[in-house]
Design goal:
275 residues, alpha+beta, 45% helix, four-stranded antiparallel β-sheet, 434 Repressor (Amino-terminal Domain)
């Protein structure tokens, strides 16, 4: 069980630290190697020369770490430091006493330090800090790998899935295309067989009143004259037939058997008919 020495006498933080170090048989250099706190600062702590030290937050941290390393209660040493600085009597400091732990095994060397324990009072040397930092860096690296993998992996997976779907769709189209082509060919062939073959352009005319006509077939004039009511004429050309009407509104015209509307037209008009 730990021996507990309650510091009822007025001992300063520096004197307590120095006494504990000497009891351990340690030099300031040994303490520097183990705590990574410079000898200059350790000596200033032991001499209560706080003006030689950095800002307040660093002073408290040094006292806590140095005290824990020496087997003392670092937080209670910090409370004592606060009382000293505020001018408060040591007896009024709310503390259970600064406890020195016996049988603390320490190996003071550059390569091996006191192993870090658990709890808020555990000393954590440089090796422990480096290991913790390395774990944090490794964990952060894994997090980045996961994020990057998710960012690039998910779109890649979607792309592969879409590619498979495209392949399937293409295969269906290739299978369906020949059947569709055959059906279309059959329909077109049937329509071609039913449709009459038109070799020339044939124009049939019926007059429902008097109308003067001038007709040319493939550039050659073939008719010029007057038609009376109920007169009918048929003209034929190989490629093109041009008709000039003197009174187009009284004419009824069919081209290759199909009626051509003249509705609303009056007076002189020139019409061109092709196959």
């Amino acid at each position: 069980m730990d021996n507990v020495d309650t510091m009822e006498n007025v001992n300063s933080v520096g004197s307590i630290l120095k006494e504990a170090r000497i009891k351990k048989g340690l030099s300031l250099i040994d303490a520097e190697k183990a705590t990574t706190i410079r000898c200059y600062y350790l000596d200033a702590l032991e001499q209560d020369e706080y003006y030689k030290l950095p800002e307040e937050v660093f002073i408290k941290g040094m006292i806590r770490n140095y005290g824990n390393f020496l087997g003392l209660n670092g937080p209670e040493l910090v409370d004592l430091y606060k009382a000293e600085k505020a001018g408060t009597a040591v007896e009024k400091v709310k503390s259970k006493g600064i406890r020195e732990v016996e049988n603390v095994r320490m190996n003071i060397s550059l390569k091996q330090h006191r192993s870090a324990g658990s709890g808020p009072e555990a000393y954590q040397g440089p090796s422990s800090n480096k290991q913790a930092l390395a774990k944090q860096i490794f964990a952060g690296f894994l997090g980045v790998v996961v994020l990057v993998g998710g960012y690039f992996g998910i779109p890649k997976a979607m792309e592969m899935l879409n590619s498979k779907n495209e392949v399937k769709t293409t295969a269906v189209i290739e299978i369906a295309t020949p059947a569709t082509t055959k059906a279309n060919d059959a329909t077109n062939k049937q329509a071609a067989e039913l449709a009459p073959v038109v070799e020339n352009v044939v124009v049939e005319m019926t007059a429902h009143g008097k109308c003067w006509l001038e007709v040319s077939a493939d550039g050659v004039s073939i008719f010029e004259g007057m038609l009376s009511a109920q007169d009918t004429k048929t003209f034929e050309a190989k490629d093109k037939l041009i008709v000039k009407y003197g009174n187009v509104g009284v004419m009824e015209v069919k081209v290759n058997g199909q009626p051509v509307s003249m509705q609303g037209e009056q007076g002189v008009a020139i019409k061109t008919y092709t196959r």
